Amino acid sequence: MEAVQSGAALAPFEAMLASERSRLVRLCGYIVNNADVAEDLAQETLLEAWRYRHRLSDPQGTSAWLSAIARNVCLRWLRRNGRDQTRLVLPSTTAGNTVADVVDSLPDPFDIEVELERDELALLLDRALGLLPPETRTVLVQKYVEELPHAVIAARLGLSENAVAVRVHRGKLAIRHVLATELHADAAVYGLTAEGSNEWQATRLWCPLCGQSYLRGRLATLMQPFALQCPHCQGAPGGLFIEAGLNQLQLFSGVKGFKASYSRLCSWMRAYQSRTLHAATVLCAQCGGEVVVSRRLGPTVPLQHRGIRGVYARCAHCGTTSYASLNGLILNVPAVQPFWRHYPRMRVLPEQEIEVAGRPTLLKRCESLDGHAWLDILVDPDTLDVLRVDGASDA
User: Fold this and answer.
1) What element of type H or E holds 135?
2) Do 372 and 386 form a contact (C-beta atoms < 8 A)?
């Protein structure tokens, strides 16, 4: 009888592990950059989770707990299977390269979304370590992961402290080299590349509206605003094209990379839209003049967006236009941001006009392209207020 009760009590935990498997396979594949071993690493993660299930104190944090186990499993694999030294040519320490400490490259703290991205950045740095020669990887891990002083590292490795300092210096150069070459596209997302930002750059962010292409972006400078566009859908009505105003440059102060920049812009847009959705007029962000708000996009927006649902405000005093299509408003719904983080390849379907409780309603659906998860957002067609959000995960 006791065994039967134990099995019944463990059934929900087993079901939870099964529901997380596909996500863990994707996560492991990303960390080690090797789809061939992702299944095995995910299975090892699930076995460790089962073995240490008594350590899960908060069921609400199950996904984060499993991700942490997966990260450790993958990090062990990377350390065991780091590429041979002949695969990487270390840059010369006399080449005039500027050495930047990896820790100094982390985004400045701003909001909870940037804090969540720190985990993703740590995974990227783990992958970079896995591409280094064993002796270089060892000294960097002992220095920055185990946080050991040079004297202790020297004693462990049978080196002088000066030799350890040289290896650390060369190791940081090697990290920069890897981030600038083999992991360049991923590093650009976090602002870890030094290339100029005046041209459109490829990012590793999937378009959240169509899920068919990575976004292209430009970082904010004195001469140009921060912008993101989707090569696949930007020309379609409501397609993804995001551009901040030049007057918003201070908004991106201290922010590195496209994900952190977009996160900060979203925070500002949520606050701005919460005012414009419930007001007939707002103050112009540029000159402070009073601006009438419309629920249809007007003649000063790109041609493909004109006339569609959204929030539109054009200042008659200075000519500044602020607008967001209904798709843009949907992306800023609080439930959609974590959905996109959890399912990076998602799409937003065209709105459907339906009736709910006898009243006209717009239905907007967000769905994962890698599984069966979805969110349904019910919207008032006149005010564009969100009425209700329903959804289902991959479980």
Assistant:
1) helix 134-140
2) no
Structure confidence at residue 115 as a pLDDT band (50, 70, 90): very low
Q: Does domain 2-189 have CATH number 1.10.10.10?
A: yes
Give the integer Cα–Cα distance in Å for 205 and 195: 18
Short-list 216, 266, 269, 264, CA closest to 239: 216
DSSP per-residue codes, 57-97: --GGGHHHHHHHHHHHHHHHHHHHSPPPGGG-PPPPTTS-P
pLDDT digits (tens, 9 = 90+) for 182-224: 777 666 666 565 544 457 888 889 999 999 999 999 888 766 7
For residues 13 and 138, what is the distance between their CA atoms, to the nearest angstrom?
Answer: 37
For residue 311, report the phi and psi dihedrals to the nearest 5 degrees. -110, 130
> How many other CB atoms are found less than 10 A from the CB of residue 30?
19
Which residues make Cβ contacts (< 8 Å) with residue 167, sequence separation at least 6?
Answer: 135, 136, 139, 159
Where do the domains of the chain lie?
2-189, 201-329, 343-392
Residues paired with residue 104 on neighbouring β-strands, in sequence order = none
pTM metric for this prediction = 0.53
DSSP bridge pairs for 346: 368
Q: What is the DSSP string of 215-266?
A: EEEE---SSS--EEE-TTTTTSTT--EEE--GGGGGGGTT--SHHHHHHHHH
Residue type at 111? Answer: D
130-159 confidence digits (pLDDT tens): 788 888 888 888 887 677 888 899 999 999
